[in-house]
Protein: ABC-2 family transporter protein
Amino acid sequence: MLLKYQVKKIWNDPVKNFICFLVLFFPCLEIIYNLFDLISTENHVLRPEFMCFLVGSSTRLSHVFQSIVLWFFPLYSLLLTAEDCIEERKTGIRNIVIAKEGKKKYIKSHLYKSFIFSFLLIMLMLLINMALVYIIFAGGKTPMYDDMMLSLRTDNLLWACKNGLLVNFIYIIITAAICGLISMVGTISAIMLVDRKIVYGITMLFWFAPTFLSKSLLYVFQPFTEYSLSFVAPTIIGVFVVYILYISGWYVKEVCFDKKSI
Structure:
């Protein structure tokens, strides 16, 4: 009931609806740009699996659209799912809800809301993009790599290029899951730390720090590169473990050790 109420608050907020619209719109904007670019340059059309949003290889601006959505997703998620926590603290609504529902249920509902909403938003965005790409560019026949280039690449890349639809779907699920977790990081920070500067700074730090690793988080979001999932698996596991430990640590501290009302 509490989770349903919190999700309803997002849907009833026009600013948050606009943010959701922007997130869903940018991959569609990339498709429109790709169409105009192909018409104006008369380039060969890549096979649909290589035109999807995460691939970022269809045109010279693909990485720009990708960056706007993925690099800054923590900001969108904070505005969508974490701002409520800060506002409820300032208005005193949080204490009222805790008195009625309990601290554990209050925190859990916000965390569930953050993960589910962000996960589904990114999943919907990428699945809509993939469906449109497979429809609009259905006639594309050009592979991303020619036979000579493929012969110099790894067996994993060769397998990925032969199973494009499956690979895209796997990367979509992983991307959505990581976006859901960073949203939870922002939400638990907002519940516990309250100060916007600290909350936004910590969340962005958690998001960008893994991108500086040798096995960068950025490789996790981009299929059909020389960096296979097995190569970036330590980064994926590490991100999941660190995010979950951070979220769980704050949760356990507040629910089990701090008996005061938050």
Summary: The chain has a mean pLDDT of 86. The CA atoms of residues 175 and 221 lie 6 Å apart. The chain has one domain: 2-257. Residues 2-257 form one domain.
